[in-house]
Design a protein that fits this description.
By secondary structure, the chain is an alpha/beta fold. It is built from ten helices and twelve strands. The strands form three sheets. It has a five-stranded parallel beta sheet with strand order 3-2-1-4-5, with helices on both faces. Strands 6, 7, 8, 9 and 12 form a five-stranded mixed beta sheet that branches. It binds xanthosine-5'-monophosphate (XMP).
Length: 322
């Protein structure tokens, strides 16, 4: 029987063995629990030979960059470099609407940015290892497990370029989400990080159905921030697994506001309950909470004039729309 402490101890041993006495590693922080726990594990194993790189790809939710720079660094004292790559990602995604294309582009750009960061860090030593918070379900759904079909190429598994110049360190590869959270607590990470709801690596890029643009990102960020605020205020954060907000950027519908006609976009609320993201059910949110979210979004986000609720379980729907 494996205890969380024994998982931690075993992983630290494996990491030390893989990286060696004086190897150096880079870890990309996404803002999510997976990369945070992976980084904290590796930091336990190799200390300040780990440098974390946080890429602001412009596909983040409101306040996320500050949260990583403040909370995670405060909890771990880890070396952190933030790279502002917002323009680069927007340029690479211009004109792209296909979900798999988006995922592959975002995954590729992520690695390129890390490689650039590695070159920048070369002055300090040779960073040969790249830490990733890949979980067991990511491995299975990207076709890395036995007999699994390729459903989506998760950006941290399927989208790696062929010329990758790092050796991967993936200490969470055999774990499910609940185990990762227990490991995080065991490592002393704060609840705000450990119980953060999952957020996909490709970020808001796969929650805009249609082309990703700076304006559309602003719209989605505003709607998403409202939904999250209201869910938190209602005390529902621990009851739902996550609640993607999806912008149907190529869909418009007619509405009326004040004295005027509107012709805006719908957003979809996708609240789901799940144990491990492999399957999920749609969460029966209280009507009054749904109403507050809908009223606020349509009042406060001018581009959005309709809020709809996704009542599809997984399967047949996936959690994200792309
Ligand atoms: P799906 O949409 O496949 O999502 O039902 C399952 C869970 O995985 C998250 N997700 C991702 N996480 N990189 C990630 O790190 C990705 O490319 C990615 N795509 C989806 C999703 O938010 C959900 O929790």
């Amino acid at each position: 029987q494996w205890t969380t402490a024994s998982i931690v101890e075993e992983q630290i041993g494996r990491i030390r063995e893989q990286i060696g006495e004086d190897g150096r590693a880079i870890c990309g922080l996404s803002g999510g629990v997976d990369s945070a726990v992976a980084a904290a594990l590796v930091q336990r194993a190799i200390g300040d030979r780990l440098t974390c790189v946080f890429v602001d790809h412009g596909l983040l939710r409101r306040g996320e960059r500050a949260q990583v720079e403040r909370d995670f660094v405060a909890a771990t004292g880890v070396n952190l470099v933030t790279v502002d790559a917002r323009e680069r990602f927007l340029d690479a995604l211009a004109g792209v609407t296909d979900p798999e294309q988006k995922r592959k582009i975002i995954g590729r750009e992520f690695i390129r940015v890390f490689e650039q960061a590695e070159r920048d860090l070369k002055a300090e030593g040779d960073y040969r290892f790249l830490v990733q918070g890949t979980l067991y379900p990511d491995v299975v759904e990207s076709g890395g497990g036995t007999g699994a079909a390729n459903i989506k190429s998760h950006h941290n598994v399927g989208g790696l370029p062929e010329d990758l110049q790092f050796e991967l360190v993936e200490p969470l590869r055999l774990l499910f989400k609940d185990e990762v959270r227990r490991v995080g607590l065991e490592l002393g990470l704060p609840e705000t990080i450990v119980h953060r709801q999952p957020f996909p690596g490709p970020g808001l890029g796969i929650r805009i159905i249609g082309e990703v643009t700076a304006d559309r990102l602003e719209t989605l960020r505003a709607a998403d921030a409202i939904a999250r605020e209201e869910l938190t205020a209602a005390g529902l954060d621990r009851d739902i697994w996550q609640c993607p907000v999806v912008l149907l950027a190529d869909v418009r519908s007619v509405g009326v506001q004040g004295d005027g006609r509107t012709y805006g976009h719908p957003v979809v609320l996708r609240p789901v309950s799940s144990e491990d993201a492999m399957t999920a059910d749609w969460t029966r949110l209280p009507y009054d909470v749904l109403e507050r979210i809908s009223t606020r979004i349509t009042n406060e986000v001018p581009e959005v004039n309709r809020v709809v609720l996704d009542v599809t379980s997984k399967p047949p729907g996936t959690i994200e729309w792309e």
